[in-house]
User: Fold this.
Amino acid sequence: MMMVRLNTRHQLPQIGIRQTQGRLDEAAIIQPQTRGGNNRQARSNQGVTQPGLSIDNYPSRRAYGFRTMGDLMTEQGRRGLSDVQAAIGRHAQENWTIATTAAQRGNDITQKIRAEIFSDYEARAVFKIDAIPDPTVQGHPNEVVGEPDTGDSTVDIQTAPNARIHYTPGSVQTYLQNEGFIHSWVSYNQYDIYA
Assistant:
């Protein structure tokens, strides 16, 4: 007797995938740019003056008789002027006296002139004592002069808010590459394993 055998052959469906990778074509950070930088170095611009000492001893030297030529000429000019004025006044008085009393008896003009001439020999020296002033001494301490310059090192930096990026996105597509199948048939007495 013949036996009927049921043969089945099948294939599962297959899904195909097409995939494109995402691509980063350009990615760069925009570097900051410096513009108009100013770089002036700091300087002290300061110095120290030398200390000084000024001594004015001219009043002391003048008291001892050491005068400058200007002071000596001024003093001699004043003295000469006062001597001339005194001599003019004295001579005018004497001449007036002679004119009014010359004709009187007992008035010996020559005797008077002789006595006046020799009176200078009997004059005594006159000493004047004055205090000698102290020299004036002034000290000048050293000083720091000048204004410091703090310098300037400012930099203007221009930056971009974003990086420069060019990105191509990837894609994924799925499709049915093979639909699959199930075939069934009958064979007799044995299975059809080659079908």
